[in-house]
Amino acid sequence: MQPIPSHTEGSILKSLVRMAFPIIMANILQTMYQMIDTFWLGRLGANAVASVSLSFPILFLVLSLGGGLTLAGTVMVSQYKGGGNQRMVNYSSSQTVMVIFLLSIILAFVGYYAARPLMQLVGAGPEVLEDSVTYFQVSSWGFIFLFMFFVFQSLMRGIGDVIMPMYIVLATVLLNLILDPLFIFGYGAIPGYGVAGAAMASIATQGLSALAGMIILFSGKRGITVSFSQMKWDFSWVKRLFAMGIPSSLDQSSRAGAMTIMIMLVTHYSNDVVAAYGVGARILSLVIVPALGFSIATTSLVGQNFGAGKIERAEKVGNLSSLIALVGLSFVGMVLYLFAEPITAFFIPNDPEVIRDGAVFIKIMAPSFGLLGVQQVLSGVFNGVGLTKVSMLISVFALWVIRFPVAFMLSNKTPLDYEGIWWAFPVSNALAAVVAFAYYKTGSWKLGDKQIPAI
């Protein structure tokens, strides 16, 4: 087994950057799946982009149910790693793989057969309904592969190995660059599948990444050894996984649910507005990647230091990561504000109305990106000590108590019309950052959570 160094000693900045940079790169590359889809589907027209935009929030909602459990695996593994308990690192990893695999099979079947009513629920019009249903159904079969790679990625991050997942994602995205236009438009004997082709290309590459991840975990050569003998159902352990993972799943699903509700508000307007929202949402998903990268790195570093009993060092990790997120994402927001029009035009060329509306959306959101980064990083601190419920409550407050009501009121009760939906984003980002920071400064999080048994 190749030893993975602990991050409980040495320079915090160096540990944070070494962890965060590969995570950010891997997340950017993963986001490129959707960005590449949007680019090529934009060549089919605004309706193709709108159909995928309608599918994305529901897909994210389904994926979030498993994503929370993988985060719980990250927290447990990181704390056992910090405490020097390799036996429990391996056992926790094996149990997490088993649970996520079973869950992914269930969600794949549910997603496929519920595709049509779900698309109708979010308000898909007759001109985009069939494409959105087809895209969702094809994507559903990829849940198994996607979840298996996610659990591999999460476990590796828990022990501090962030390089190998990045390499695997890079390889699959490069392959997706070839397969996407091939399956969407066809070439030679290969027919074009249109919107469904984008999902087919993603499934092919996700399958390869999942296979690579499982081979590494079972080989035991990267700091974790997963084995079938440790996958026997352990009710007490699975109960702990769900106790910590369900709040995180609810956190992520509340985000997806809020995105779905926002889509339902947007679909009251024209398909051009839906397409503009889709482009803006894609940009937001890319911008949030650095914040998520530092958040995940913070979770792992805080978890390892908390497991080692180094609470003050864990707090220093939170302070530094928050500062970097605030400054870095504020700069990114400024750049996106200045180049909003050409960025929108890149995705949907030759459609002036969509370009204008998408650019306005980006410009309204951009100034709040730094605050969004602070909230994400502090959630990473809370997750690292096992307080996934705190992160969940902050998300629910930001998205359901603030964002949706503000979007509804401004779009329906003021002259802003659909631009009122745009304004709900910076308002909710700012208030969520204030709440997260206020709780962080109380220091209550330092007591941690009791779900993880003593090391």
UniProtKB/TrEMBL annotation:
Pfam families: MatE. The keyword Coiled coil does not apply. It is a multi-pass membrane protein. Its main location: membrane. It comes from Reichenbachiella carrageenanivorans. Keywords: Antiport, Cell membrane, Ion transport, Membrane, Transmembrane, Transmembrane helix, Transport. This is Multidrug-efflux transporter. It is found in: Cell membrane. The chain crosses the membrane at residues 16-36, 56-77, 97-115, 135-155, 167-190, 279-302, 323-340, 360-378, 390-408, 420-440. The keyword Manganese does not apply.
